[in-house]
Design goal:
The chain contains five helices and no strands. With 92 residues, it is mainly α. The chain starts with a helix and ends with a helix.
Length: 92
């Protein structure tokens, strides 16, 4: 609901919610929250991947660079560590 999205924006101080975007520090994959998660926006985004080869290729290239940056690290653990550090610094 809109209330969940508002609570997220007030509590969480990360600009993104998707793991690839958080790690990259930029939007690689469009984040479809709340109304953007309705069928029309979602199908539009999927359709864009199918119909726009340049968009698809650019997204794949960005995700490939992200994979290179991560190396053997585990993204979930890395993000969890960042969240803990952020929460600890916010509590000071």
């Amino acid at each position: 609901t809109w209330l969940n999205e508002l609570a997220y924006k007030l509590i969480v101080r990360f600009p993104f919610i998707g793991l690839p975007n958080i790690i990259a520090g930029e939007e690689i994959i469009r984040e479809c929250m709340q109304k953007a998660a309705d069928p029309e926006p979602l199908s539009g985004e999927v359709g864009r991947f199918i119909e726009d080869r340049a968009y698809y290729d650019a997204t794949c290239a960005s995700l490939g660079r992200l994979k290179e940056v991560l190396g053997g690290r585990k993204p979930s653990r890395e993000v969890a560590r960042l969240i803990v550090e952020h929460l600890e610094s916010a509590g000071r």
